């Protein structure tokens, strides 16, 4: 079986070589590309003979997939699948698996960190202080008490809500589906327009 990582997928050349040797011992060929190219012609060239393709968030549409007749499995090193033509994969028996849940905590914490950075003007003040300047007119604000909107209540959205509630925020949510666990956190689902209107700005 030919397995192709069409981009680095976060591993080093040394690790790729280890994987190559391990899979060779099991009768498989592993090809790893150290650069990321998103143009359809390059993707087709890299994927055309592969039975398994590893990719992160590079868009894969029918124009590329249709030129990969041996493809049986897509290993998506990413949480979402909206960049993959899932209809084409379904009608051509190409299995697709993603890495759901691998960064839920990390992304939720990063979202909170960025909110605090914007409200407290941490990055701006850091730059000023490093230039020997005083605080000047900068005045940070607290996250506590703010109304925050969450668009999408999947695993990351729910974890972000939990952290925001711990900070004392009022949270509104919009999502295609309404989940009981979100309502149990005291969060109201609203329209997208309502969310944008009622949340605090930075």
What do you see in this structure?
With 202 residues, the chain is of the alpha/beta class. The protein has two domains: 96 residues, NAD(P)-binding Rossmann-like Domain (Rossmann fold, 3-Layer(aba) Sandwich), CATH 3.40.50; 95 residues, Rossmann fold, CATH 3.40.50. The strands form two sheets. It has a five-stranded parallel beta sheet with strand order 2-1-3-4-5. It has a three-stranded parallel beta sheet with strand order 6-7-8, sandwiched between helices. Helix 5 packs across helix 7. The longest helix has 17 residues.
Average the pLDDT over all residues and give the rounded result. Answer: 94
Total DSSP E strands:
8
**Unreliable residue runs:** none
Helical coverage, percent range? 25-40%
The H-and-E topology, N to C, reads as EHEHEHEHEHHEHEHEH
What is the level-2 CATH architecture name of the largest domain?
3-Layer(aba) Sandwich
Coarse shape: globular
How much strand? 15-25%
Q: Give the strand order, joined by hyphens, for the main sheet.
A: 2-1-3-4-5
- Number of helical segments with 4 or more residues: 9
- CATH-derived topology of the largest domain: Rossmann fold
CATH class of the largest domain: Alpha Beta
